[in-house]
Amino acid sequence: MVKQLGFMFLLLVLGTQLHAQSIISYATLNKKQAYIGEPVQLTVSVYTSTWFTSGVDVGNIQIDGALTVYFRSLSNSRTFNGKKYSGVSFYYNLFPNKTGELIIPSLSINVESPKPDNYKGIKHAVKTKPETLKVNDIPMGYDPNSWLVSNGLTVQQKWSTPLTKVKVGDVVQRTITRSAGGTLSEFIPSTAWDSIPGISIYPKRATVNTTKAKTYVSASRTETVNYLFEKEGNVLIPGTTYTYWNPGSQVFYTKTLDAVPITVAPNPDLEMLASIKKSLQKTVEAEVEQEEKPFTILGLSAKNFSIYVLTGLLFLFVVYKLTKRLLRWIKLKRLQYLNSEKYAFKQALSALKQHDSGQFLIKSRIWIKTLDSRYETLSSFAQKFNFENLNDALLKYNQDAFQKKTSANTKVIVHLKNALVQSRKVYLLQDEKIKPNNNKWLNPTAID
Questions:
Q1: CA 194 from chain center: how many Å?
Q2: For residues 194 and 226, is the Cβ–Cβ distance under 8 A?
Q3: Cα separation, 73 vs 433, whole angstroms
Q4: How many other C-beta atoms are found inside a 10 Å radius of the C-beta of residue 72?
Q5: DSSP letter at 376?
Q6: Which residue among 120, 217, 295, 417 has its CA within the 20 to 30 Å range from the CA of 36?
Q7: 171: Cβ contacts below 8 Å, ≥ 6 apart
Q8: Sign of CA dihedral 353, 358, 363, 369
Q9: Model pLDDT for residues 5-24, shown as the tens digit of each residue
Q10: What residues form the membrane-spanning segments (predicted)?
């Protein structure tokens, strides 16, 4: 009873009181000490006196000195100090990978929960207290290179060919597969291959795999080795023993593959032995080189690839911005051109060239208004500036196009076109001369 009251008090101290709304968060371990590779259950729980209006975000839990495996979350309820709380618990397995004191840091949990008299969720960030796990050294007398913690271990082996018909120069492949429960593939040690007189050994790269279910994790490691038999006679493939520690029963267990005797028959054709040996050696060297070769993307290291990607994205962003500005500038210039006197004059000449007197009348008035808003027609413009050639051309064009009600002949049109071009040129030159000098001050100061 005293222990229960003490635990309840600890939970209430860890809780965060916010305006009569209580949020409690804590982390617990199912054991206080463990060996390297021994799974330790970490449970992270958070409770509220009301309810959660959105999912609880625990974040990515990373612990220095251990591998972390997330399993599941479970909604539940608990009673604290006589009051019922709704909550959710997150279950993890920690696998220590070095000895010493392992610190599970304070975890920040983001939640949304309303006040008791409201329904709108309020964001809160609550923290758990740090926890400590003692990671023990491997017991004396056990090889650290073959250390394994597992709930159970199965060992299987197979041979590529029958061992009753082996002769000198033959290559026999041996495959050993170990499946271990309650651990990760990173913690299954490699097999130590004993040297055997008269046999050359060529190990291949191991294949590892980790399988995770909702409440359990298991792993496997498959290792293959090639035996090249170089001498005739009787040889013995040594037995192999695998030892593991079962954390549930707190007992060491062993799995043994018995020794295998083989009689190697003679082979008169020994010329191919050297080439086979060379080929196997190249295979081993290629696998070792592949393992040692750094990870690359398109022939680049991850760092250089990231730099190229970021540089490319920056370049594309700059190109996009410049293109956007260029298109906006082109659009503005196009709009300015469409509203310009030059474009209006071009449209008027186009209508004139097409022998369309109606359109020419409309387009010429638009041009005149654009050129000088004081004038409504070509005639008034020509009279004002004494463009006799333009007056004469307009008179002949009007006679042909409107009085005779026929299309003006080409000679008249060419005459009018030349008169328009010449008159516009003279007007623009005069207009340029009377423009003020922009280099002078707009408001000059009198000099005494």
A1: 45
A2: no
A3: 86
A4: 11
A5: S
A6: 295
A7: 226, 227, 228, 229, 276, 280
A8: positive
A9: 454 544 444 444 444 568 89
A10: 305-323
Pairing mode of beta strands 131-136, 33-35: parallel
Between the CA atoms of 157, 159, 163 and 165, what dihedral angle is there, to the nearest 10 degrees? 170
CA–CA separation, 439 vs 411, rounded Å?
46
CATH of domain 2-136: 2.60.40
Beta strands in 312-415 (DSSP E): none
In angstroms and rounded to an integer, the radius of gyration of the C-alpha atoms of the chain is: 46
Side chain identity, residue 351: A
Write down the residue that tokens 């922009």 correspond to: 438
**Each residue of 327-382: pLDDT tens digit?**
999 999 888 888 888 888 888 888 888 888 888 888 888 888 888 878 788 888 88
Would the pTM count as exceeding 0.90? no
Amino acid in the structure at residue 112? E
Strand, helix or coil for residue 220: strand
Q: Which two tokens stand for residue 66?
A: 């251990």
Nearest CA to 131 out of 70, 199, 41 is that of 41
